[in-house]
Design goal:
single chain, alpha/beta, Rossmann fold, 10 strands, binds thiamine diphosphate
Length: 225
């Protein structure tokens, strides 16, 4: 497990895995190095929305494009939690943050849509409320050969919740129950603003990056003989 910096990134210290706690926004780059040098390892990269999609946004897009066999977990609490509640690219227009006391004017974007269009071959979303569903999705993501992205909607009651009057941690978790539905649910007909959960992409056709790189090495070695 390779992580960057943030409340979410600290998870690498809580698991009994071989882990690297690296620098903000660069966890995917470190993991890419690890994976290329030891392709047999399973690589998991837990990140916050700031870590993965603000400072690390470029690395995220290119990891999706390469289809390297890494599982990226985006814990999206819509805020920079660790550093005191600055707004992130996922906060959304009209949201309050310590750096937007009168509300942010920046639009957010959809992590799932970004990952899909950048070429990730496994893309899913769940929430901290849906713990069993999240567990099953993570198992599939980790076993998927290629770049997998799992967005997990999470709460930061201390900053996002308090500033935007969303209640305590439990109320915020309950909101994930009421504001989300399984992909294609009939409830979407009445309320298209509900956020969909589940597996959006599962594509096994695209070559995996380490395997493609091995072929380049084999070609280069043939030339040397
Ligand atoms: C290069 C660099 N820039 C800025 C920081 C300060 N910093 C640490 S964590 C963080 C943001 C964390 O937000 P997020 O990734 O969303 O994770 P969360 O704490 O909400 O889980 C920032 C800006 C840093 N450590 N390194």
């Amino acid at each position: 497990m390779t992580s960057g910096i943030g409340c979410s990134s600290r998870i690498s210290g809580y698991v009994d895995f071989h882990s690297l706690h690296t620098i903000h926004g660069r966890a995917l780059s470190f993991a890419t190095g690890v994976k290329l040098s030891r392709p047999s390892l399973k690589a998991i990269v837990p990140m916050g929305d700031g870590d993965s999609l603000a400072i690390g946004g470029n690395h995220f897009i290119h990891a999706c494009r390469r289809n390297i066999d890494i599982t990226a977990i985006v814990m999206n609490n819509k805020i920079y939690g660790m550093t005191g509640g600055q707004f992130s690219p996922l906060s959304g227009q009209g949201k309050k943050a310590t750096t937007a006391p009168y509300a942010t004017i920046d639009s957010d974007f959809d992590v799932v849509e970004l990952a899909k269009s950048a070429g990730a071959t496994f893309v899913a979303r769940s929430t901290v409320f849906h713990a069993n569903e999240t567990k099953e999705i993570l198992k599939k993501a980790i076993n998927h050969k290629g770049f997998s992205v799992v967005e997990i909607m999470s709460q930061c009651p201390t900053y996002f919740g308090r500033k935007n009057k969303l209640g305590d941690a439990v109320q915020m978790m309950e909101s994930f129950k009421t504001n989300t539905v399984k992909i294609g649910s009939k409830k979407l007909e009445k309320n298209p603003n509900l956020i969909q959960r589940g597996i959006f992409v599962e594509n096994t056709d695209k070559p995996e990056y380490c395997e493609a790189y091995d072929q380049v090495i084999a070609t280069a070695m043939k030339g040397k003989k």
